[in-house]
Amino acid sequence: MIVDDEPLVRLALHHLIDWQALHIEIVCEAGDGVEGLGLLKAHGDIDLLLVDIQMPRMNGIALLKALNDPALTKHPLPIILSAYSDYSYVREAFLLGALDYIVKVDMDEEHIVPVITKALEELVRLGGVSKREEIGHADKQLVQQSDKDALLQKLLDFDLKEDAESFEQWLLSASGLLNETNEMAIIIQIAQAIDTTKLHGFIQQTIQTVLHEMSILHEIVRREAGEYVLLCAFPHDRSESAIRSQIHSALTMIQTRLLQYVNASISVGISDLANGCRQWPRLYQQAKQLAAKSYFAGLGKLFYRESASHESGVKDNGDHELWKDLRAGRLVLLQALKQPDESQWVRDYEQLEKRMSDARQELPDKVRAFFVDMLWELGAVLYPKGIRLEEVQPTAHNPFDEIKQLETLEETQQYVRLLVQRAHSAIHGNSLMNAARYSPSITSAKKFLDLHYREEINQSLISEMVGVSESYLSKQFVKEVGCNFIHYLTKLRIEEAKRLLELGIKISDISERIGYLNPEHFSRIFKKMTGFSPKAYRESLGKV
After folding, report:
1. Rounded to whole angstroms, what are the CA distances from 417 to 62, 314, 354, 372, 374?
2. Diameter of the chain by CA atoms?
3. CB under 8 Å to 145, separation ≥6 — which residues?
4. Are 514 and 503 in contact (CB under 8 A)?
């Protein structure tokens, strides 16, 4: 069943793909959710539902909610038809049980067929289709996803040097792409600012949809919150450059869609190619080490094997001297905290940051351990002064936990710099403690917003102006200020709007003065923030 208010879209869906070849019959269609719900109740035998999000009377989200109606004898599997601007609705649709989505600008056979094929597989798994041969599948038993995940999880944890016998036994229970040619492991790490517990289904579905669209043979394993392992195989490709081009296109598309729909930045580690399932543990470890490079290079990047100039963990004299110099620089910095002159510790800290740039080939955990040791040593400097480390921490989080959670070296250095600044102020009992409530970058960002909130401002502009990455500014702003960048900017504008409304200025003029070119958009924002429309707010003040 197709539910869409655009007749041309419904017509296109009839003719874009060969439904008969997929053993699917379009039995009815509707122009809005109300009509669609009525037809669903009347037919009672719809397996698959293609539903538009934006429709009159009842939109797609409302229709998905109505699928829980006990009057429905059968609950169809929904697939969403969306525009790129519908990202918040698409996210809600997944929470309501949508299997997948099709972006209308990509509505062609190449993009639609993989989504429909996946829906058929899901119907088979749920028992909604009785004969597998009717939809063109092989007659192998469908492995339950939970069992498959357990098998793949175990695969990635094998140490073949120590556990070769168990691995051979395990192979007897595994099949599928695990013993193909041209295999590749990919790690996708989601920025920690995103709550992946709520969005896991949407994120995994987005990854899977793109891989289906690109016809890439794959399995997806969720190792932990925010980390997805893609086990991919290209048995029919012989050119490494062609495989690289295909996977780069797929990952770039995944990046774009996740950023567009849930504002999620990702970092990706991509292993080299190998043959046979015995290579999977090695490929996984290689991809994981590459993905970890986002700690030094920043989020939102793809890291291939050539990103590593040498294997992590290799020890040499240069490595030994680097950490010896860093530890020495750390001690010099902590000694400088005893001097009243702030400029001394600032110079020493900047020198430490420059030297730390040479540690970019190390594993992030080793760098984090360096800063954790620094916290212990800082605590030892504060203790004789009767000051605890927790008293100077910049955020509500324990400093040791904070260091472990920060996603990039830039964020870590910014945090430790602020911690040291507050420690110096506490040691010398001066007024800098109050000034150090916000880090330098957040102080600059707030000051700019407080002065220029009436102008056209975006987070990218501010991050460039204060000299930090956009992802760092976003996360740190929430931690220090207590709300996100957009909410803070909106509050400033609405407070100014209230003042102007009290002065009796026209609503359209107020909208323009505070940075909203569209008065209707301003009115919606004002009502959302205050509970009143601008007109009702003015009337409540007794203004004409």
Report:
1. 49, 30, 13, 13, 12
2. 85
3. 125
4. no
Q: Are 251 and 260 in contact (CB under 8 A)?
A: no
Q: Would you say 289 and 269 are in contact if contact means Cβ atoms under 8 Å apart?
A: yes
**With the C-alpha atoms ordered 115, 121, 126, 128, is the resulting torsion angle positive or negative?**
positive
What count of Cα atoms within 13 Å lies in the side-chain half-sphere of residue 245?
Answer: 6
DSSP secondary structure letters along 339-377: SS-HHHHHHHHHHHHHHHGGGTTS-HHHHHHHHHHHHHH
Say if residues 49 and 69 touch (Cβ distance below 8 Å).
no
What average pLDDT score do residues 381-401 get? 83
Instruction: Give, as one character, the DSSP assignment of residue 307.
Output: G
CB atoms within 10 A of CB 220: 19
List, in sequence order, the alpha helices (H) in 482-544: 485-502, 507-513, 519-530, 534-540
d(CA 99, CA 219): 17
Q: How confident is the model at residue 3 (pLDDT cuts 50, 70, 90)?
A: very high
Nearest to 309 by CA among 319, 301, 321: 319
The yes-or-no verdict on residue 143 having pLDDT over 60 is no
Whose structure tokens read 């009767």?
386
State the Cα–Cα distance between residues 469 and 252, nearest whole angstrom: 20
Q: List Cα–Cα distances, 279 to 149, 243, 285, in angstroms.
A: 18, 18, 10
Side by side, the strands of the sheet bearing 302-303 are 217-224, 227-233, 183-190, 266-270, 302-303
Predicted local distance difference test score (pLDDT) of residue 312? 44
Helices in 214-262 by DSSP H: which ranges?
240-262
Q: Which of 528, 494, 514 is nearest to 453 (CA)?
A: 514
Say if CB 64 and CB 26 are below 8 A apart: no
CB neighbours (10 Å) of residue 201? 14
Q: pTM of the entire structure?
A: 0.58
Task: Kindly give the pairing relationship between strand 266-270 and strand 302-303.
Answer: parallel
36 within 8 A of 3, measured Cβ to Cβ: yes
CA distance 218 to 382: 53
Torsion angles phi and psi, residue 525, rounded to 5: -65, -45
CA 295/CA 363 separation, integer angstroms = 9
pLDDT digits (tens, 9 = 90+) for 497-535: 998 888 888 998 899 888 888 888 888 889 888 888 999
